[in-house]
Design a protein that fits this description.
The structure is a single chain. It is built from 3 helices and no strands. By secondary structure, it is mostly helical. It is elongated, with a radius of gyration of 16 Å.
Length: about 90
């Protein structure tokens, strides 16, 4: 099956991209850059979890990936409100 041949390569590429984005999150000059890097990393992790779930035929990984994606979306809203409030104060 084609998924058996392609999945290991895709998993490797996503793992490397997660590592690179993690470095960007640590070195980000502003909070906005760090938030964007963490978002990208988390969505890459969710995608990686779904790919691994298909490759291993384990549905539990998909069940855990969906709340993780929703959690990062809620975190985006919270940080956006925090940054908006911070800019109104002038800090």
């Amino acid at each position: 099956m084609i998924i058996d041949m392609v999945a290991p390569v895709i998993i490797l590429v996503y793992t490397i991209s997660i590592i690179l984005v993690f470095i960007r999150a640590v070195k980000g000059p502003t909070i906005g850059d760090q938030v964007l890097a963490i978002d990208t990393m988390t969505y890459a992790v969710v995608t990686l979890m779904i790919i691994v779930a298909v490759y291993l035929k384990e549905a539990i990984l998909v069940v855990t990936a969906i709340p993780l994606a929703l959690w990062i979306y809620a975190l985006d809203i919270y940080i956006a409100k925090y940054l908006e409030k911070k800019s109104e104060i002038g800090g």
